[in-house]
Amino acid sequence: MKIGVDYYPEQWDRELWKADADLMARTGVRLVRLGEFAWSRLEPKDGEFDFSWLDEAISNFSRHAMGIVLCTPTSCPPLWMYETYPDIVQVGADGSRLQTGIRAHRCLNAPMFLYYAKRITEQLAKRYANNPAIAAWQIDNELESYPCTCEVCRGLFRDWLIDKYDDLNNINAAFGNIVWSGEYSDISQIQPPNAYPKAWQNPALCLEYTRFSADMTAKFAHDMAMIIKRENPRAKVTTNTLFSENTPDFYKLFSNLDFVSYDNYPPVRLTDDEGMSSSHAFYLDMMRGVKQKNFWVMEQLSGPTGSWMPMGPTPPSGSDKGICPPGNGSRSRYRHALPLAYSQQGRRDVLAWSYRPQ
Questions:
Q1: Is the peptide bond before 9 cis (omega within 30 degrees of 0)?
Q2: Residue 131 falls within a domain, yes or no?
Q3: Could you tell me which residues come within 8 angstroms of residue 85 by beta carbon, excluding any fewer than 6 positions away?
Q4: What is the pTM of this model?
Q5: Residue 354, preceding peptide bond in cis (omega within 30° of 0)
Q6: How far apart are alpha carbons 200 and 198 in whole angstroms?
Q7: Catalytic residue ranges
Q8: pLDDT of 130-175, one tens digit each?
Q9: ∠308-260-110 over CA atoms, to 5°?
Q10: Are 161 and 208 in contact (CB under 8 A)?
């Protein structure tokens, strides 16, 4: 098992990089993930690329024989892109564009976003795909089946339904649209689920839009991976995933990727609710089953979940050594060592999120 860290050199003074790498080497770190959210540093202006700092960071770690997991930064387009092409922002169920805030506001189907996403991925692949320091690639970050309702997604959804059902009569029959006189007479009448409560909407429509969104997410991951594979067919490519509000179809998402990687954030507060589980054993077992082989933990909780509100507490001392449940109920406290836990569940490499010595 290799132990690694997620590191964001763009967030720290350059003077710290060497000392950080030296300390990682002394503590047994073998893998370092880089570049996940760094698009604004890699392309500070449209078409102006700066890889010098990333070259330096990779060299800094490779001198210690640490493998690099290099990420494509497409989860976080730079603000200049949002300002120039506001139509790349997702549209919510209420028909309004999302307000840009933290990350992942882009629509994966927006033509201009795809143009820039492919371009930055091509630039990275041409520069680093054959670098021996690169151990693996990560596409984007925590991709979800985003329920965007922009005009592009509406058109693609209609095409997706016609491809699946052949014509409107079959769609009407599959959706049960005769109920409440909801039959489509023209393809333009097909709309994504809206902001009404789901109880007031056609469940077949909601299900199919979720499936469509999952297919679009899987297609995006596949297309980005193929850009890297064109430069180096032997490159190992994954994306990191987790259970979320818009959980993707894991089987489709990873079908054309080389291995599964999962972001493991077990709760720092154990629940007293008998119907709830504080164990992530199920999630880890499922990740092993997606491709029927070992997987990576690309992000492992190693401190408070401080990037979200409300601020999480600092985990008790030593708790990051215990991720494996003894198996005697949903409220079990974890007691076994992390390497033992993950090796039992088919985990191959673990990267702690995120690195900063105290």
A1: no
A2: yes
A3: 110, 112, 113
A4: 0.89
A5: yes
A6: 5
A7: 142, 299
A8: 999 999 999 999 999 999 999 999 999 999 999 999 999 999 999 9
A9: 65
A10: yes
